[in-house]
Specification:
Elements (H helix, E strand, L loop, with lengths): L2 H29 L5 H8 L1 H12 L2 H4 L4 H16 L8 H22 L1 H9 L6 H4 L2 H11 L9 E8 L2 E4 L6 E9 L2 E5 L9 E9 L2 E5 L4 E10 L2 E4 L10 E10 L2 E5 L1
Parallel strand pairs: 1-3, 2-4, 3-5, 4-6, 5-9, 6-10, 7-9, 8-10
C-alpha cells in the first residue's frame, strides 16, 4: 500500500479536527470579549469548504477524474468573497442552475455514449419476420440459437424508468452487458444474482431523485462505485464471501436526495 493511501484517512481526520479546533477557539475568544465570534463564523465558514476540498484532493481516489473537490473549493472561495463584499454576485443565484445544467449535460453525454448499443439493439429487431422469411436452413439455425444455453444467448441491456412507481427487475435468461436505471419519486430493485455478465465488466448508469435503487449481485462480482451523491447515500451492504471476484459491475451516475444500496 502506498504512502498516499496511508495518509488519506489521516488527512480526513486532520481536516475535521482543525475545523472543530478553529470553531472552538473563535467561540472562546468571543466569550472572552476579544472578538465578535458570530461575525467571524458567519464570514469565515466558507473557508471550511475550501479545506474540505483540499483534503479531498489529497486522496488519489477523489483526485482522479472527480471534479467535485474543485467545485467545493470554488464554491467556498466564492461564498467567502461574497461575505467579504469583494464581489457583487451571490453564489446561490448561480450554483443551483449550474448544478442542473451540469447534471443535464452529463446525462445527455452518457446517453450519447450508448448510441452504439441502441443501434445494435435496433438492428436485431428491425425485421421481426426475418426468421420466418429466411431460408429453411437459416430459420432452423436461428431457432437453434434461441435454444442455446444461458451463457451463449445474446446479451441484454437493462433499461428501467420509475416515476412515482416501483419496478422489480430479475433478469435470468440472458447475460447482462449493461443497464440504465432512473428512479424519480419511485424505486427500482434490480436482482442480478441469477445473471451473468457478457464479459469481465459491465457499466450500470443510474439516476435517482427522491427515490431509491436496490441492486443485488452474485458473490463473485465486485462493485466499482463512481456515483456522484448529493444529499443522499450510497451503501455497499455486501457481506464478505470466500469467493474470489471475477466480474466487475461499474455503477456510475447521479444520486440526488436519494439512496442506492448494493447487496449480495
Amino acid at each position: 500500500m502506498s504512502d498516499s493511501q496511508h495518509r488519506a484517512p489521516l488527512s480526513t481526520r486532520l481536516v475535521l479536527g482543525a475545523i472543530i479546533i478553529a470553531i472552538g477557539v473563535l467561540f472562546l475568544l468571543g466569550n472572552l470579549g476579544w472578538v465578535d465570534a458570530r461575525w467571524l463564523v458567519g464570514a469565515l465558514w466558507p473557508l471550511a469548504l475550501v479545506v474540505v476540498g483540499v483534503g479531498m484532493l489529497r486522496d488519489p481516489r477523489q483526485r482522479k477524474g472527480n471534479p467535485w473537490p474543485w467545485v467545493i473549493i470554488t464554491v467556498g472561495v466564492w461564498i467567502f468573497a461574497d461575505n467579504m463584499d469583494w464581489i457583487a454576485v451571490n453564489v446561490w443565484d448561480l450554483i443551483v442552475p449550474a448544478i442542473l445544467v451540469y447534471i443535464g449535460a452529463n446525462l445527455i453525454y452518457r446517453s450519447g455514449g450508448k448510441s452504439h448499443s441502441s443501434k445494435h439493439e435496433a438492428s436485431g429487431s428491425e425485421n421481426p419476420d426475418a426468421v420466418s422469411n429466411a431460408a429453411p436452413s437459416q430459420s432452423e439455425n436461428v431457432r437453434e440459437q434461441l435454444r442455446l444455453p444461458h451463457a451463449e444467448k445474446a446479451p441484454e441491456f437493462i433499461r428501467s424508468f420509475a416515476f412515482m412507481s416501483y419496478c422489480d427487475l430479475h433478469p435470468v435468461m440472458q447475460p447482462v452487458r449493461g443497464g440504465d436505471l432512473s428512479a424519480v419519486l419511485g424505486g427500482i430493485k434490480l436482482d442480478l444474482r441469477d445473471s451473468s455478465l457478457e464479459g469481465d465488466e459491465a457499466v450500470l448508469d443510474v439516476f435517482t431523485f427522491w427515490g431509491g435503487i436496490e441492486i443485488l449481485v452474485p458473490p463473485d462480482w465486485t462493485i466499482s462505485n463512481k456515483v456522484t451523491t448529493l444529499i443522499g447515500g450510497f451503501v455497499d451492504s455486501r457481506r464478505p464471501t470466500k469467493v474470489i471476484p471475477t466480474k466487475t459491475l461499474v455503477i456510475r451516475g447521479f444520486n440526488l436526495m436519494s439512496g442506492i444500496e448494493v447487496k449480495n
